[in-house]
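dumping this here before i forget
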Amino acid sequence: MGSYLRKVFTVDLRALALMRIWLAGIVLTDLAIRATDLEAHYADTGVLPLHALHQHAWHQYFFSFHAFSGLWQFQAVLFAVAAVCATSLLVGYKTRFATIATWLLLISLQNRNVLIAQGGDDLLRMLLFWGIFLPWGRFYSYDAAKASTPATETRYFSAATAAYILQLFLLYVCAALLKNSPEWNSEGTALYYALSLDQILMPLGKLIYPYPELLRLLTLGTYYTELLLPFLLLIPFYNAFFRLLVAGVLVLLHIGISLTLFVGLFYLISIASVTGLLPANAMDWIEQRFLSSFKRPFSGQFKRVFREISFPVTVRVELQWPRTFLQVARQRQFREVFVGVMLFYSIWWNISETNLHLPKLPEHTKWLGILLRTDQRWGMFAPVVFKDDGWYVLEGSTTAGKTIDLNQKGKEADYAKPASVMAMFKNDRWRKYSENYLFISNSAIRPYYCHYLLRQWNEQHPDQQVTKLHVVYMKEPTRPGYQTVKPKREMLCACATAKE
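structure:
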């Protein structure tokens, strides 16, 4: 058994280092995108004030530093701290501390507004969690360049490497198991319905949409790729070949998704997640071809650059454990046991989310997963694809008696379908919010969005003041076989200024 585990779950530390760098870059990119909506998404003057968050979108085991204040300036400070921590992770300075800090601040940020969350956020969160226990700072990092004894051994095996690989396995297999509808596994119509959603339709998706047989082939190919491909990671022989095959197929899959569907950062996170699978021979080739000046054991340019860097602030963290845990061997033993327990817990959680006839995770134990945000459900377009397509019309009644559409920069409301519904969203966070806005379960938060839009418009357009606003959804349900449906007007919310 030990031999099997080592063959299957041993990773290359250089590959883990590349994954660390990529994930840190994604965290910084995510922060930059979110920062454009500091007030809208995280302040009391936005779409989800703190009192509304705690009343309608909060779990008792959540924690969030971002929920300490409703001021956008307070959020800006936390964003800056998170950016510093992510940058530290990127360059590998105090790597373990930077990983913990980045993970904590990411959870805090995600808990502040769950109405804009998507599946990629869950994956990013889990990769950082397992990264806490991975030595992904031993290569391509400031810590490595400063080490008195450079690392030479690239192969590494631990409970955390098993957790990382099994996390990827669970992601795709459980995603397939949740797609237990005929439109995924027999009819092959899921991609047709997905590409019928104008809110996420990309140019390549529009190009292939008219070809039902191609869509059927791609649907079934996606389903069986998710269901079967991850099992190659568990084969102990030809492991390097199978890892390269899995990584290559998944990268192509997510590139294809990004070209057809608007999924925000999800595809980048997914591609980054397989970087750690790269075997030693692949990393040797990458080093020789692209990283020749950074080649281990960090001689040359990479080491010189980092040795010349002098950080103005030095972070020193000392944990005072009981004396029995001061020994390195005991600390590692404790870490391995903790990771093993969390891995078992995560596997059970994932299995419980599927329809497999196996014992479910007891409800009274779920507090731990919610507290650490290791809760996960990979239900992308599952079990069926969302079919209530449509677009928003923000009907504003002006003081001059006109009805304008705030979504169309104040043009007269005409309710016609825009040339590109997707282009109406500033970013994927707003698109996800608009999707959640439709659900009856979120009806209580609708007025906050309405009042936010009304206030923002009047502040920015003093010569075209709006006194009333109706948030209207032009619902256009998707029917099978390219059937057209006349859009139906649904008013989701109405609000007015105090003077009205």
